[in-house]
Amino acid sequence: MRWGMLLGSLALALLIGVWALQVPSPRPTTAPAVAFSAERAMTNVRAMAARPHPVGSADHARVQGYLFERMATLGLNPALQAGAMSPDAVARLQRWGGDPAAVGNQAVNIVGVLPGRDPDAAAVVMMAHYDSAWGSPGAADDAAGVAAILESVRALKARGTFDRTLVVLITDAEELNLDGARIFFSEHPLRDRVGAVVNLEARGGGGRAMMFETGRGNAETIDLFARIAGRADGGVTSNALSIFVYENMPNGTDFTIPRNRGIAGLNFAFIGRPALYHTPEATPDNLDIGALQHIGSQALEATEALLSAEALP
Question: Is 80 helix (H, G, I), strand (E, B) or coil?
Answer without folding.
Answer: strand
